[in-house]
TrEMBL record:
Recorded catalytic activity of this chain's protein: 2 L-glutamate + NADP(+) = L-glutamine + 2-oxoglutarate + NADPH + H(+)
Gene3D superfamilies: Aldolase class I, Glutamate synthase, alpha subunit, C-terminal domain, Glutamine Phosphoribosylpyrophosphate, subunit 1, domain 1
Functional pathway: Amino-acid biosynthesis; L-glutamate biosynthesis via GLT pathway; L-glutamate from 2-oxoglutarate and L-glutamine (NADP(+) route): step 1/1
PANTHER family from the UniProt entry: FAD NADPH DEHYDROGENASE/OXIDOREDUCTASE (PTHR11938), GLUTAMATE SYNTHASE (NADH) (PTHR11938:SF133)
Domain Glutamine amidotransferase type-2 as annotated: residue spans: 38-435
This enzyme's EC code(s): 1.4.1.13
Source organism: Tropicimonas sediminicola
Name under which the protein is recorded: Glutamate synthase [NADPH] large chain
KW Iron (keyword) present: yes
Residues that span the membrane, as ranges: none
Alphabetized InterPro entries for the sequence: Aldolase_TIM (IPR013785), ET-N_metabolism_enzyme (IPR050711), GATase_2_dom (IPR017932), Glu_synth_asu_C (IPR002489), Glu_synth_asu_C_sf (IPR036485), Glu_synth_centr_N (IPR006982), Glu_synthdom (IPR002932), Ntn_hydrolases_N (IPR029055)
Residues forming coiled coils: none
Region (Disordered): 916-937
PROSITE patterns, A to Z: GATASE_TYPE_2
């Protein structure tokens, strides 16, 4: 290969940059999609005195976070690292003397750290001139420039090629102003310099820092090399009172020096999900942003957020601006990233809630997982986001240092004098005021902030209208024939009213559907489709977690504020004179009531255009409503109403999505949007997705008047019980829940930051139109424009108003109907395919395939055709069927969704032909691990690890060739699943380690994957427990899936599966099936392009699935880059599925998707039918290859140049532009595809040593004890050893619980004892990081403080977040507190700890948890099994428990008392816990302080009642 010969130099860097720009322009890659994540931390002297030790600790900490970053292929180019310290003045005095000046020691000096273009000397001079002239213009004196000494030996080639020239400018405070003013003027100077450099178009210029207080050294080196590269940092005179450090892990492989962190004030680990909304609102706030401190200079600092900033850089810019305007760092953090408060009436003091309510009136929160380390020069603080989704552990040492960071043990501390060890919880802060020399913990700092202004008085002016609106009686606007016309004109159908609207008004819940989506994309359809159908919802995968909006509703908020949002920089009561609602949904009568309460003039704008067929009528009408809105706001209107109810026979309504976005984007552009609210009344709006699109386009509230009228009509005709007001209340509840779900799958919890963020991707809307009316939204497949939309709207309008019929069309969008939307799986095609598989007739299969291709276009691939490679070749020269079949996979369908018979049939069939089947997420029967008497192998080659971790044991993980991490599912990406109790049979309960008949919940995120470096850790864990298996990561196609795939490849995955949105499913909300995710053609191509561009494509195998129906589909997938192909729905149909689409109800008439024994007996599927199916696919592929002149599939993989767009179907489809799918990346022809390559290796753990030292135990079963010293970089200890135990002795072995005891001292790294097997015992004297006992399978883990530690165990944190995730068996004893999400999804481990953070025992289904200390909020959410005991002497626990699924009572029954006491006694024996020993000593007294917590569903299953009294019912 030619890789070794590439010269990395400036020319290479230029070519790389050009390539990326070309890809962004022509392909599917977009620079905004890049993500980064990392390790972050701070060291600060509490007394604020400078010392050398602080700097050294910061440098050492960087050496201990290396495993949280990624390394390029050259082994030396990191993703970026850096350190932020105070300016060591004496050191710089010496530097000044070297320039020949004598420094003025009575004046402050400032230092600017500056990146200049290294190779372009002319540009360098330009930059120096800009910098100097701006400093002088402000009236300061320049001592001179200094070359920063660097050692380039430690850099990788790529980093060196992009390395800037690094210089410092030394400035004197010649004006003798005070420090605050000097610092603020330096900020203005820097903003002016940046603007001037941008205007001069100088590339490669960047100011890292320009300050009289501190200095930043950063770059693209590995974390451990920061001080090697910058020898300054090793100088003894380099002293500081604080150090903030950061290590980056990015999805990008092109090193950009300026993106390394820390930024000017903060270092951020995480991801801001609401970035688009925040940046848009910031543009509006900017216009009104004026401040006395800046005076005339206010214009110089705008725009506040620079073009092309990453999410962290944008957050930093706003943070800095708030601080420079006089806010302290803790207050700025509270404004930007507040904790969740609106649902926390109980826990939070009123003063805090008033402060948060005020902050909410001023600023949209920046929402998403975040661990922040920040400083404003005086304060140094660490903080977390409202969900606490990144770790932040801290230690207060005996020497008076506060050390905080992503892991514990990054800076070795003296255990004998340590003062405190803790972990920050959701929304918490820890801060040091260096001027005062004082440490503030969370409550102290928030009390101080809340008392700093009379917030309570100010928020008294907020007008909350909910109670008022709840008293109104609803009434319809239109009835009778008028209503019919409007319904038809809005595109309503009987199906939509009955399948979508009715369930919402009856049950207050969204409709559930199943079996995926096989209808055309909106742009390809011949039917009328509302504009909302062109919008695909975004969702988060890997780089940040979705949220569970049901079980964690306390952090979610739909609070909607209206009215005039004042200047963000002021602090006074005028900012709170606003109206607030609890939800953006408003009924008809409620709307009128709302208008009566408006606190400013209101203007109504008519959103219709004349029906006279003028060809640009819609475009002109949009211009009209834009200018009317602008005029209204300029003349003082505070509320604008956009409505389409003025439509009539000669007035056509415009799509309200278009109208809303047109007005919102125009007002934002003009800087007027924050002066008014935008209230929308829409006829088309009916499902939660339409509401979400309107709000994403900028609507403040939405009134779906026609949907409400349709309900009134049904009530009047006796088809719906209850009053209209009740029906609307339920409809609102369903829409609210739907909105929360759509926001939460992106990881957004607050609607004010979702509003106006356009978090969608358009498929098939013209780029020009999107740029004009939906600025910032992505539309990579350009299509229909304003004129096309106008034609479609006029057509449906004429049908309603002029069609002369008042009968609603029947529909057919959800289930196939003759007159309705096309469905790919018709009754005839299914029958042909089944007959072909039953009889083994390839002729029939070819007829089926022809029939499929004769359908009108349904998918993007239907508009593509092949170009031959050359002459056709004889069939016998093409790769054999046997060899092609091995590339097929049946994707993960769980035993639970499928019947046991169907599940086993797939495994047997795929194993017979050497292909792979996937177990799905429900575990697998250990009986399947041995072949059957006839030689068939019923065990799946791929075992799935999904978010529920059901049945994931050390044994399960060892019986396979591939482990698949299912990050998302095509039918409902970003959502969890639920297996209703009625489907949980004895078999399923046994495999999933739960109880028969009790509901099982899969959470939306993997609780050990909140970011890309967490995924790298899970991949590492899986490669330790199974030393042979490859690891697959399953993603769902979305915009940005390419950059995520690049991050996954850097995390050492072996296979990446990109699923299309239209895959089958057992049960998902209808809007998720229809509107979330993208077709696989787009996702697969993007992944292939971005991996190839980053030179990572040959590290991984690409696989795809989601509606592959014929051999032609397979060949297209191959050309777009896929090497393996998943066949799900087709395999079910071959086994008898007939698409009744009622999987969710356990009533499958053919026994494929049901657990009901009577129906299962009707199952007729056999392995032979499935083998026939795969053979037909392969045979058809072989024939196509022969025709194209290819001899193997490998020859066409990635050859997009063999595909061309063809014209078929409607004329307007010719506007569709598929070119971005068909480009070829530079250098792609060198990629070598090999499905059989060995797996990507990961470094060894300590276990390599343990296995060597324990050879006598592993060989002969001798009892042994070993000891080691550990550090946080020793991860996943005990896992590889457990793999050996399972292979040598099996899971159900006869070993003693401590047959092999491993004693460790120090801070253990992440995943201590993950998947630990029976016979292994690990004892740690010290502490441990996140994921202790993940998937624990029978081992015993003990963590306790060292003997000489002075700490009180129950007040200090000893283990990290997400402990015992998915554990099935074993024990954990920890003498100290655990972090957030303790025992999440525990289904069998027994554990004793001394306190835990928020969301403890979430989704727990088995095992016993004893907590001898304080718990955090939302304890036991979604817990449906197992038992918990909480020691609660102060009676605080009750208000922190989520009582939805639980009952609580004192411990009275002797059986439960014995269970509790036995565990506490064992805890004392293992950890010598002082607190537990004390409890046992006063047992009679203390027993009464325990609360026993049991799930309601378990009451009928537990062996003894909870209380001893006869017939007592536990108190709710």
């Amino acid at each position: 290969m030619t890789r070794e010969l590439t010269h990395f130099d400036a020319a290479w860097a230029e070519a790389e940059t050009a390539k990326r720009e070309w890809m962004a322009e022509n392909g599917l890659y977009r620079e905004e999609d890049e993500h980064s994540s990392c390790g972050v931390g701070l060291v600060v002297a509490i007394d604020g005195k400078k010392s050398r030790k602080v700097v050294e600790d910061g440098i050492n900490a960087l050496k201990a976070v290396w495993h949280r970053g990624a390394v390029d292929a050259d082994g030396k180019t990191g993703d970026g690292a850096g350190i932020h310290v105070q300016i060591p003045v004496p050191f710089f005095y010496d530097q000044i003397r070297r320039t020949g000046h004598e420094p003025d020691v009575n004046r402050l000096i400032a230092v600017g750290q500056i990146f200049l273009p290294r190779t372009d000397f002319g540009a360098q001079e330009t930059c120096r001139t800009i910098v100097e002239s701006e400093v002088l213009r402000m009236g300061y004196y320049i001592y001179g420039w200094r070359h920063v000494p660097v050692n380039i030996e430690c850099l990788g080639d790529k980093a060196n090629a992009t390395r800037p020239e690094i210089e410092q400018i030394l400035i004197s405070n010649a004006k003798d102003v005070d420090e605050e003013t000097f610092e603020r003027e330096l900020y203005v100077i820097r903003r002016r310099i940046e603007k001037a450099a941008a205007a001069a178009r100088v590339p490669g210029f960047y100011v890292c820092s320009l300050s009289c207080r501190s200095l930043i050294y950063k770059g693209m080196m590995l974390a451990q090399d920061v001080a090697e590269f910058y020898p300054d940092l090793q100088d003894e005179r380099f002293e500081s009172a604080f150090a903030i450090y950061h290590q980056r892990y990015s999805t990008n492989t092109f090193p950009q020096w300026w993106l390394a962190q820390p930024f000017r004030m903060l270092a951020h680990n995480g991801e801001i999900n609401t970035l688009k909304g925040n940046v848009n609102w910031m543009k509006s706030h900017e216009i009104r942003m004026a401040h006395a401190t800046f005076g005339k200079l206010a214009e110089d600092i705008k725009p506040i957020i620079a073009q092309g900033s990453s999410d962290s850089a944008a957050l930093d810019s706003v943070f800095e601006m708030l601080v420079r305007a006089g806010r302290s760092a803790p207050m700025a953090k509270t404004m930007l990233v507040p904790e969740s408060w609106s649902m926390q009436a109980v826990e939070l003091p009123q003063a805090w809630r008033d402060m948060y309510s005020y902050v909410n009136s001023v600023m949209e929160p920046w929402d998403g997982p975040a661990a922040l380390a920040m400083t404003d020069g005086r304060w140094v603080c660490g903080g977390l986001d409202r969900n606490g989704l990144r770790p932040m552990r801290y230690v207060v040492t005996g020497e008076g240092l506060l050390i905080a960071g992503s892991e514990v043990g990054m800076v070795p501390t003296n255990e004998t004098t340590v003062v405190e060890k803790g972990a920050l919880g959701p929304g918490q802060l820890i801060a040091v005021d260096m001027a005062e020399g004082k440490l503030y913990r969370d409550t102290e700092i928030k009390d101080r902030l809340a008392a700093s202004q009379p917030f309570g008085e100010w928020v008294g002016k907020i007008n909350e209208l909910d109670e008022l609106l709840a008293r109104v009686n609803e009434k319809p606007m239109f009835t009778g024939p008028d209503l019919r016309k409007r319904q038809i004109a809005a595109g309503f159908s009987v199906e939509e009213l009955e399948q979508v609207l009715l369930p919402m008004a009856e049950d207050g819940k969204e409709a559930i559907a199943s079996m995926g989506d096989d209808t055309p994309a909106a742009v390809l359809s011949e039917q009328y489709r509302p504009l909302s159908h062109y919008f695909r919802q975004n969702f988060s995968q890997v780089t940040n977690p979705p949220i569970d909006s049901l079980r964690e509703y306390r952090v979610m908020s739909l609070k909607t504020r209206f009215g005039n949002l004042k200047n963000v920089l002021d602090e006074d009561s005028s900012q709170t004179e606003i109206i607030v609602l609890d939800s953006p949904f408003v009924g008809n009568a409620q709307f009128d009531e709302l208008v009566r309460n408006f606190n400013a003039p209101m203007v109504e704008i008519d959103c219709t255009f004349a029906a006279d067929g003028h060809h640009n009528a819609l475009g002109e009408a949009l211009a009209r409503i834009r200018s009317e809105a602008e005029e209204a706001v300029r003349s003082g209107a505070g509320h604008i109403v956009l409505t389409d109810h003025y439509q009539s026979a000669d007035k056509v309504p415009m799509p309200m999505i278009l109208a809303t976005s047109a007005v919102h984007s125009w007002l934002t552009r003009e800087g007027l949007r924050t002066f008014c609210s935008l209230n929308v009344r829409s006829a088309e709006c009916i499902d939660p997705h339409y509401f979400a699109v309107l709000i994403g386009c900028g609507a403040t509230v939405v009134n779906a008047y026609l949907a409400e009228d349709s309900l009134a009509d049904r009530i009047q005709r006796g088809l719906l019980e209850g009053s209209l007001t009740e029906a609307v209340a339920k409809y609102r509840a369903a829409v609210d829940a739907g909105l929360l779900k759509i926001m939460s799958k992106m990881g957004i919890s607050v609607i004010s930051s979702y509003r106006g963020g356009l978090n969608f991707e358009a498929v098939g809307l013209s780029r020009a139109m999107v740029a004009e009316y939906f600025p910032g939204m992505i539309s990579r497949i350009s299509g229909i424009g304003i004129v096309g939309i106008q034609r479609k709207t006029e057509k449906i309008h004429a049908k309603g108003w002029l069609g002369g019929t008042d009968i609603l069309p029947i529909g057919g969008f959800y289930k196939a109907r003759k007159s309705g939307e096309t469905h790919a799986w018709g009754a005839q095609t299914m029958h042909m395919m089944q007959t072909a598989c039953n009889t083994g007739s390839f002729e029939l299969w070819k007829q089926y395939s022809k029939k499929m291709q004769a359908n009108p276009p349904i998918h993007l691939r239907d508009l593509m055709d092949f170009k031959p490679l050359g002459r056709a070749v004889p069939l016998e020269e093409v790769e054999s069927i046997t060899s092609i079949r091995k590339r097929f996979v049946t994707p993960g369908m769980s035993l639970g969704a499928l019947s046991p018979e169907a599940h086993k049939t797939l495994n047997v069939a795929m194993n017979r032909i050497g292909a792979k089947s996937d177990s799905g997420e429900g575990g697998e029967d250990p009986a399947h691990f041995v072949p059957e008497p006839n030689g068939d192998n019923p065990s799946a080659k791929i075992k799935q690890v999904a978010s529920g971790r059901f049945g994931v044991t050390a044994e399960y993980l060892n019986h396979c060739e591939e482990l698949e991490i299912k990050v998302a599912q095509g039918a409902k990406p970003g959502e969890g699943g639920q297996l209703p109790g009625m489907k949980v049979t004895e078999l399923i309960a046994r495999l999933r380690h739960s109880t028969k008949g009790v509901t099982l919940i899969s959470p939306p995120p993997h609780h050990d994957i909140y970011s890309i470096e967490d995924l790298a850790q899970l991949i590492y864990d899986l490669k330790q427990i199974n030393p042979r298996a490859k690891v697959t990561v399953k993603l769902v196609a979305s915009s940005g899936v390419g950059t995520i795939a690049a991050g996954v490849a850097k995390a050492k995955a072996d296979v990446i599966l990109v699923s299309g949105h239209n895959g089958g499913t057992g049960a998902s909300p209808a809007t998720s099936i229809k509107y979330a995710g993208l077709p696989w053609e787009m996702g697969l191509t993007e992944a292939h392009q971005v991996l190839a561009m980053n030179k990572l494509r040959d590290r991984v195998t690409l696989r795809t699935d989601g509606g592959l129906r014929t051999g032609r589909d397979i060949v297209i997938a191959a050309m777009l880059g896929a090497e393996e192909y998943g066949i799900g729905t087709a395999a079910l149909i071959a086994m008898g599925c007939i698409m009744v689409r009622q999987c969710q109800s356990n009533t499958c008439p053919v026994g494929v998707c049901t657990q009901d024994q009577k129906l299962r007996d009707k199952f007729t599927g056999t392995a032979d039918k499935v083998v026939n199916l795969i053979t037909f696919y392969a045979q058809e592929v072989r024939e196509i290859l022969a025709e194209l002149g290819a001899r193997s599939l490998d020859e066409v993989i990635g050859r997009t140049d063999l595909l061309a767009q063809v014209s078929r179907g409607n004329a307007y489809l010719d506007d569709l532009d598929l070119n971005p799918l068909l480009i070829t990346v530079d250098g792609a022809q060198e990629i070598v595809y090999d499905v059989n390559k060995p797996r990507n290796a990961v470094p060894d753990t300590l276990d390599a040593q343990i296995v060597k030292d324990a050879s006598r135990f592993l060989k002969d079963g001798e009892k042994m004890q070993l000891s080691y010293a550990v550090q946080n970089t020793h991860r996943t200890i005990g896992t590889r050893t457990s793999s050996h135990i399972v292979q040598r002795f099996g899971m159900r072995n006869a070993l003693q619980p401590d047959h092999l005891t491993v004693k460790l001292t120090g801070s253990a790294g992440q995943s201590l004892g993950a998947f630990g097997a029976p016979g292994l015992k690990i004892e740690v004297a010290g502490d441990a990081n996140d994921y202790v006992g993940k998937g624990l399978s029978g081992a015993t883990l003990v963590v306790r403080p060292p003997m000489n530690s002075p700490l009180k165990a129950d007040e200090n944190t000893i283990i990290g977040n997400t402990v015992l995730y998915g554990a099935t068996d074993g024990y954990l004893f920890a003498a100290g507190r655990a972090g957030e999400r303790f025992a999440v999804r525990n289904s069998g481990a027994k554990v004793v700890i001394e306190g835990c953070g928020s969301n403890g025992c979430e989704y727990m289904t088995g095992g016993v948890a004893v907590i001898l200390g304080a718990i955090g909020a939302n304890f036991g959410a979604g817990m449906t099994g197992g038992m918990a005991y909480v020691y609660d002497p102060d009676g605080r626990a009750q208000e922190l428990i989520n009582m939805e699924t639980l009952v609580t009572c004192p411990v009275t029954h002797p059986h439960w008392e014995a269970e509790l006491r036995e565990l506490i006694e064992r805890h004392v024996a293992e950890t010598e816990s002082a607190k537990a020993a004390n409890l046992l000593q006063h047992w009679d007294l203390e027993l009464g302080h325990f609360v026993q917590i049991c799930p309601k569903e378990m009451l009928v299953h537990i062996p003894f009642p909870l209380t001893t009294e006869e017939g007592a019912i536990p108190a709710e």
